[in-house]
Amino acid sequence: MPASSSRISPAGAAPAAIRRMTSRWLSKQPRAPTLSQPPRSAGLRPATTATDGCPSDSPIRRSSPSRPRRRSSLSGRLMTWTRPKAARSLSPTAASTPSLPARKPSAPAPWRPSRPEPLASRGVARPPSEGAMTAGFIFATGVENSNPRVGDRRVDQMAASRFYDRWEEDFALVRETGCKFLRYGPPLHTAWLGEGRYDWGFADQTFAELRRHRTVPIVDLCHFGVPDWIGDFQNPDFPELFADYAYAFAERFPWVQLYTPVNEMFICATFSARLGWWNERLRGDGPFVTAVKHLVRANVLAMHAILEVRPDALFIQSESSEYFHAAAPKAIRAAETLNQQRFITLDLNYGHRVDSTVYEFLLDNGMTRDEYHFFLDNHVRRRCVMGTDYYWTNEHRTYEDGRSEPSGEIFGYSEITRQYHERYRLPVMHTETNHVQGEGGQEAVQWLRKEWANLLRLRNVGIPVLGFTWYSITDQVDWDTALREDNGRVHPVGLYDLDRRVRPVGEAYRQLIRDWSSVLPAQSEALVLPVDMPGTREPWDRRRGRARG
User: Is 375 helix (H, G, I), strand (E, B) or coil?
Assistant: First the structure.
């Protein structure tokens, strides 16, 4: 008999041995949860109460005066946002929940956000009839809520369009158009009264109306301006203070899921600190870089703050998509420089390493290495959709001395958005476009059709475009001069005029939504956002034991 045959067991012995070994192995494995098992106990944050004598449901709230403040100074060691103490108090179950060991940070240590547990692991169940996930292409419009300071006056587009008096009618027009999504946010300069002080009165009314009619807000928290007490975007305290505001808003309206914390950071920095039009009204590369790093840092810290309250929040970053064409051979270098710098805000926001020439530009104009590495280490791009805005003024003709002027549409939305997508590889949404109605009455309609064709082209070549926005629901005022002149001149770019009569482009957009709503989702069920549609009883309210908004 061969030597190997001595390892063969008698008949029947081998199967029995295998069964015993298998039984012992299975007994050591963790049991899979079954449907009959109760959910793990949830470590949930208790409801916070006012500390200044205001009732808990008062629209005017003040943060705890005992909370230590950490003043930030971006010229020195990085100081980062910390949430209020009331938000840190957790139940014993949550406090005892083990966390993964943090990676040892380099000096100076950037802020590392906590990673809240998924809702399912917290024992938060969602009934199938409430908070259902949307499964369609995002058709949106917006309420123009720009509020920069121009010289000694505040430019408030909500006041100019009479939104404060007719907001219920405007929300009804959004529904009439067929849009289930609305870019909208409370006026920052009136809602944010001071450090830790907020007036939620108007926001409570408007967001309750949106929720009642199941309109999904994409919340603009900062749109080109800050309250007078902040000053402007040169203030190094702005990013941390703004993160506190974002946290307070998310606490007040925990059912809100979609955010644009800081709108069009590149345009805001350019108009405020490079061209000298708005807010600080400075001109130069130094003020521009300062505004950029404060705006983007505020945006990043605000995203982290919101995620502390709403771990499944999503951020649709509305940013202007630009391109600079050389007017002559001698202007090529100037155009190339501007085409590199057009990505600065999104590079920092998404933790994308900038080009070497841009890195030198940032360091030469006041950004430190530590400040730069903050953006590389703290991005949350996995929660982001890249919103791209495009108007006929987004393309420029650039001259040898660096001057630029609008060139009109040359490449168009699809080509420029392809360049941005190639750089960041994120899902895309067309978050702003419009055009004046024109003397013929059809110019805006033709622009709508052209932009829609550009969007379809992007989807056809494999770029994941999730939504489209005509901005805004009504006409605007004085945008023909970029708000620099107080002329009171109506800019006829809305779906409705200021008397709330539908424009031809409003009728065309309504028909476009009807025609394409059922077609685009059928092309790919994966090209949708995991958005919870507003309901009357949200799991967030049941979790916190109160109804808000």
Answer: helix
Other CB atoms within a 10 A radius of the CB of residue 186 amount to: 25
Sign of the torsion angle spanned by Cα atoms 36, 41, 42, 47: positive
Q: Are 338 and 279 in contact (CB under 8 A)?
A: no
What's the whole-number mean pLDDT along residues 361-378?
98
Strand partners, 60: 199
Q: What angle do CA 114, 117, 120 make, to 5 degrees?
A: 165
Confidence check: pLDDT of 197 > 50:
yes
pTM as predicted: 0.78
On the question of pLDDT at 91 being above 70, the answer is no
DSSP for residue 31: P
**In this predicted model, what pLDDT tens digit does every residue of 268-326 receive, in sequence order?**
999 999 999 999 999 999 999 999 999 999 999 999 999 999 999 999 999 999 999 99
Q: Which residue has the tokens 């709108």?
A: 263
What residues contact 292, with CB distance under 8 A and at least 6 apart? Answer: 265, 266, 269, 344, 345, 348
Q: Where are the domains of the chain?
A: 141-544
| Tokens representing residue 374 in the block | 């903050």
Relative to beta strand 149-150, strand 153-154 is antiparallel
**Strand intervals (E) in 269-394:** 314-320, 323-326, 384-389
Amino acid identity of residue 121, one-letter, is: S
- Separation between Cα atoms, residue 38 and residue 14, nearest integer Å: 41
Using CA atoms, how far apart are residues 301 and 340, in angstroms rounded to an integer?
25
- For 472, residues 6+ apart whose C-beta sits below 8 A from its C-beta are 141, 142, 143, 144, 183, 434, 493, 494, 495
Report angle CA 14, 16, 20 to the nearest 5 degrees.
115
Contact, 72 vs 239, CB < 8 A?
A: yes
* Residue 295 backbone phi and psi in degrees, to 5: -65, -45
Q: Which residue has the tokens 């790919």?
A: 524
Tokens, residue 229? 């007490």
pLDDT, one tens digit per residue, over 463-516 is: 999 999 999 999 999 999 999 999 999 999 999 999 999 999 999 999 999 999
Establish whether the linkage from the previous residue to 161 is cis, with ω within 30° of 0: no
| Domain 141-544, architecture per CATH | Alpha-Beta Barrel (3.20)
| Token pair for 141 | 């419009």
